[in-house]
Amino acid sequence: MEIKNKTWSILAIIFSTITLISISIYFLGYINLNFVIVILGLSQLFSGISQIELANRINSNPVRKRNKNVGILLVIIGCIISTMSIVEILQ
């Protein structure tokens, strides 16, 4: 049951690790930068969802509001980054 509550946090950590690995692979010349940026955008998206989930578990109202705002901002940034890179890949 405890792992179910931390699903978004685990996904954020996994995608952050995949981002670091894909940056290394990019510098070796095996993948395109747009694929790295898509993974980075997904990492931001999952981090934002994790932040919103954390805000819902906090009792303090001012801290909860700030965490939720940061989470929403991260979700928006992640969606924009991923969408722009996917459009660039498809062109």
Automatic annotation (TrEMBL):
Asked whether the UniProt record includes Transmembrane helix among its keywords, one would answer yes
Its keywords, alphabetically, are: Membrane, Transmembrane, Transmembrane helix
The superkingdom of the source organism is Bacteria
The transmembrane segments are: 7-27, 33-49, 70-90
Please report the name of this protein according to its UniProt entry: Uncharacterized protein
Species in which this protein is naturally found: Clostridium sartagoforme AAU1
